[in-house]
User: Fold this.
Amino acid sequence: MPARQVPDIVIGRLPVYLRMLTHLMAENKLVVSSKELGQRLNISAAQIRKDLSYFGGFGKQGAGYNVASLHAELSRILKVEEIRSVVLIGVGDLGRALAHYGGFANEGFQVTTLLDNDPNKIGTQIGHLTVEDVRELEPIIRERGIQIAVITTPAHAAQGIADACIRAGVRAILNYAPITLQVPEHVRVQYTDPVMHLQRMTYYL
Amino acid sequence: MPARQVPDIVIGRLPVYLRMLTHLMAENKLVVSSKELGQRLNISAAQIRKDLSYFGGFGKQGAGYNVASLHAELSRILKVEEIRSVVLIGVGDLGRALAHYGGFANEGFQVTTLLDNDPNKIGTQIGHLTVEDVRELEPIIRERGIQIAVITTPAHAAQGIADACIRAGVRAILNYAPITLQVPEHVRVQYTDPVMHLQRMTYYL
DNA sequence: TAGATTGTTAATCGATTAACAATC
DNA sequence: TAGATTGTTAATCGATTAACAATC
Assistant:
């Protein structure tokens, strides 16, 4: 429960801070200053202090921040202390790669459900999961109470899948399909598209 | 050659406009207004007009924008008319998925080089490419004049790979490894990490 | 204590929006 | 022509930075 309205752009930096704190813990670093954090993340020290101050005073003057306790605070703020179920729709190469991805463990997420529309894929095993029929999407998501969906279908299918997910109760979508989704206000969407990222850089070449 | 300094945040929206224009061309739509574009992309019409005005006046009062010619203008501005070679380092599940990805064609990019450090992978075929030895990274990138790298290695290897790429002449990096890279000013980096995206949304759940 | 660093305020900087004359 | 929509300016809004008292 934030004390005041926190800008979304601030929320977007918290996972970056959290990731660096995880890294510092692995290095057995006990304390870190906003200055050092900033240098490692290419963010100004003032911005880091300001971002954190939306949620409280976590540091100690003259010393900096305790790495472990700031890590715990950010985990709490981002609500990634408990594991959340994720449904992944579209078991192509990318979907398969994400299903295998080891980086979700310990970061608050677990892919628990794989869906596809291809009869040749439905029923097959990927890791320890069985691919299920996308026609069962709504009841499956509802029954399992899943709030997060990852869409790795072709572009033409993505909007329909998103609509169905939302009807079933999904409130956060990570969309890998190269299309802008139309969603109601209460649903969050994040996009990731390698072409967008690359095109954004070639301008400067 | 932009007329004046264009904010990076504006450059970041141009690929989104371009993608929608590609979509509209496939729908055989000849003309589109900033209002309609905005509705489809969840961006205000004023912002679209302002963004485009950094580069010139591409529209027609009372009518809107010619879809095909705005598409051509944006392709030119983003320099994605010619195909650019991309090196991909780290042929794990994700690297393999990107190597197979069909979405680069027609969008200005082609993965031409695959590198890995695993002797079991070096020499194998992926699609029509052969995985090469990452120890040859610098000469390969130099000889082939590659300016764009996609890093899909584990986090601990990513900074070293980035350094080597930059020494060899790379100026744009798309980094899938979950780590913030330190790079000189003349090098652009884009990040994509599913954990970051998901954590950014769970705050709102 | 002296040095370092926080948390916060005010100033600056930059991005978005609203409005409208120009004009197709 | 009348209606629609652009390109642009000025106003608004929001984010970042600089500065520093507080204090560990």
Notes: The beta strands of chain A are 31-32, 59-60, 64-66, 84-89, 109-116, 125-126, 129-133, 148-151, 172-175, 188-191.
